[in-house]
Amino acid sequence: MSKPTIGFIGLGLMGRAMVECLQKAGYPVIALGNRDRSGIEEAISRGATEAASARELAEGSDIVMLCMGTSDHVESRIYGDDGVLAGTKSGQTVIDFGTSLPSSTTKIGADLAEKGAAYLDAPLGRTPAHAVDGKLNIMCAGDKDAYDKVKPVLDDLGENVFHLGDLGNGHKIKLMNNFFAMTTAMAMSEVFAVSDKVGVPRQMVYDVMAAGPNHSGMMDFIKNYATDGQIDLAFSVANAAKDVGYYKQMAENFGVDSRMAGCADATLRAARDGGSGDLNVPEMVDWMTKNLESK
């Protein structure tokens, strides 16, 4: 039985790794290029076809996948005369693997449904290195029949694939997860910066905190940079700021005023807007050290 043709939009580090995985598994791929041609050229060298537009890509694909940075980016490829929506067809499944606003996700889903297509949100966990080997964590939500139809493809991309119910639930859970993770990361970064100021060695602080219920993987990511200069979490400050901001916006859209997101949001935005958006999150230890002086 032939494998479905995959149309893939978004060939950043994660997207190009996912495309490589799909191609190794034998899927025909149609991809959309961008200003950075490196991802599309890699895919073409392995047999992919380049589409001239998102519409053309959708017209030639059984499943459309997007792996993009923001909801605005996703919407720019869905809508318009040359967008996915213009080229979609009844029975097609469109999957957003990015971390997007649930309000945008449900809107796109409704618009695709009018043309008989299904939309799934499926944000990811783990890294591009995992993606190449089909070892991602995939948090998928949306119509169960559409999910069951594409599940074999998701299983080729992911080691742990979850169906989380209604459309938008994947993005909701991913935003809650990333809010919690980045709040922990900012708090631990500040702890190390303050420990320097009060004259307590960073390793000593960590040893005590890690012996109790505060211990976590995120604490270790920050500690490994703070004490050893080792970066285990290659996630940019700019992306962290975007995700915490989306979490706040999601809460507001549902009539909730987050009490806890404000500090992480303000800290990450200050770092990003001050020119440090390309830092990896563990490097916020250095940013905190320079920016905690009393006014």
From TrEMBL:
Superkingdom assignment = Bacteria
Oxidoreductase among keywords? yes
Where's the active site on this chain? K174
**Record domain 6-phosphogluconate dehydrogenase NADP-binding: where:** 5-165
Q: Kindly list the GO molecular function terms attached to this UniProt entry.
A: NAD binding; NADP binding; oxidoreductase activity
Question: InterPro entries, alphabetically?
Answer: 6-PGluconate_DH-like_C_sf (IPR008927), 6PGD_dom2 (IPR013328), 6PGDH_NADP-bd (IPR006115), HIBADH-like_NADP-bd (IPR029154), HIBADH-related (IPR015815), NAD(P)-bd_dom_sf (IPR036291)
* Keyword field: NAD, Oxidoreductase
For whether the record's keyword set contains Nucleus, the answer is no
Q: Where is the 3-hydroxyisobutyrate dehydrogenase-like NAD-binding domain?
A: 168-286
**SUPFAM superfamilies named among the record's database cross-references:** 6-phosphogluconate dehydrogenase C-terminal domain-like (SSF48179), NAD(P)-binding Rossmann-fold domains (SSF51735)
Protein name stated in the entry: 2-hydroxy-3-oxopropionate reductase
